[in-house]
Amino acid sequence: MKWHRIIIAGLLSSSILGCTTIFDGGPNVGVSRLGDGGTAVPAGTDPSDHIIGQREHPKIVASYGGAYDDRSTEIMLARLASKLLVAAGEGSSQLTVTILDSEEVNAFALPGGYIYVTRGILALANDESELAAVIAHEIAHLTLRHARERSNRERTSKIVDRVIGGILGSNPETDQSAARSKLSLAAFSQSQELSADKEGVKIAGQAGYDPHAAARFLGLMAQFAAYKSKSQSGDDFLSSHPSTPDRIELAVKAARGFGAPGIGATERERYLKAIDGIAFGPNPNNGAIAGQRYIHPNLGFVFAVPNSYELTNANASVVAVAKDGTAARFDSVFVPEDVSLEDYLKSGWVAGLNDATIKSTSRNNVPMVTASAKTKDWAFEIAVVRFEGQVYRFIFAAKEAGKRLRSDFDFTLSSFRKLRSADLKQIQRFELAVVEARSGQSARDLVARMSGVSDATALFNVLNGLLPGDQLIPGQSYKIVRKK
């Protein structure tokens, strides 16, 4: 696939934008569609910053499932980011903003003028000023050079830590998944976050947006974190940008420097119109969970885990955890065609491998090699599978070896097969829809339109920044999630 970038400022006509004065002679804001690094070099930065950003950009895009293409959202983002750059005193700069096709609530920056926002954070924000607060925060990280100073500390989920730490080697050349995990951006220091908060509020306020939106969105993030903690944990914006009372208090204090709440533009209706219809939740094309099954339309396979496991689709792997703590991980790895599965299995990436257990087999006409391993704390069952030119790994881990571990492992291996048309019918796709509340309608009435969505009432409240019992305002727009 050829990477390319679309520079919104250079391609959109005045009839599409309605007003192009913010672009004329102003900053060059690009919205990346398929991930090209372009030439986004902010003024006054080290040229090597751009080299870093350009090198890492396609890796970041790939690790988050690709770039998300939505014209109305791109137009809104380009307009918004352009205004913020002018307010930041970077009017001659260029910036590449990429919408990542991910449900995670995340936003971050790379050196060289690269800013990333996910579909998830677009869905959470309720107006343009809240998104402006997020983008201004990331621009502040760039102008303050925080992106270059960021530590390389990795952030992974506990279950992935357990499995990787127990059995995978550290050679990124033979462990593609471990290499992908290094793409997670480590958190900024607390002082850097607070500095970016303060500077971000200043930038957004000077751009004419509601300066109090930052504190409002931090509160919304805290509400979302509480909602998410009831389902599953994740590696997202909340972990690197915690909504602590200190941060909210600082944001409020910075905003009061501009005036009391009620000043500045929010552009709620314009924002909601721009995001109306965007995809919501995981992109099924990149792998979908349907009950106990994992279905991957693009790669053409399906497998299942026993009923006692809960499946989670992460960026670079699929993780399943049973109630007793038994864990499973599925991922992909690059293995040259001339390297046998057995040779790869014995190449050193497995700690505690029992060579006597290595066995070549085939299930559903899919060749695979299985083996057992044992470390101090964990027992493992491992399979390396070659399917349509790609190699995949199944790793099951438990505190102790036994029939249960082997039985669960065998069940999943036996379920791995080529995708059938009937499998695709099990995949559900969802989108964000903006609806207007009519007189007399309650939140319950709108929630009733969210069929197929689990915990719909809580999700409706958090998406709209509402608390239980809050009344809807007739004539105002609200977000719901519905099947496509």
Which descriptors apply to this entry?
484 residues, alpha+beta, 3 domains, 5-stranded mixed β-sheet, disordered N terminus, metalloprotease, hydrolase, metallopeptidase activity
Overall geometric form: globular
* First and last CA, distance: 27 Å
| Structural class category | alpha+beta
Tally of strands: 19
Q: Percentage of helical residues? A: 25-40%
The neighbouring-strand order within the major sheet is 10-11-12-16-15-14-13
Percentage of residues in DSSP E strands: 15-25%
State Rg: 24 Å
Q: What are the segments in which pLDDT stays under 50 over at least 5 consecutive residues?
A: 1-26, 34-44, 150-187, 232-240
Q: What would your notes on this structure say?
A:
Its cofactor is Zn(2+). Keywords: Hydrolase, Metal-binding, Metalloprotease, Protease, Zinc. GO terms for molecular function: metallopeptidase activity. InterPro entries: Mito/Outer_Membr_Metalloprot, Peptidase_M48. This is Metalloprotease. By secondary structure, this protein is α+β, with helices and mostly antiparallel strands. The protein has 3 domains: 5-150 and 185-280, no CATH class; 300-424, 3-Layer(aba) Sandwich (Protein Transport Mog1p, Chain A); 431-483, Roll (Membrane-bound Lytic Murein Transglycosylase D, Chain A). It is built from 19 helices and 19 strands. The protein has a 7-stranded antiparallel beta sheet, with helices on both faces. A hairpin with a 3-residue loop joins β4 and β5. α4 packs across α6, α6 packs across α11 (213-229) and α11 packs antiparallel against α13 (245-256).
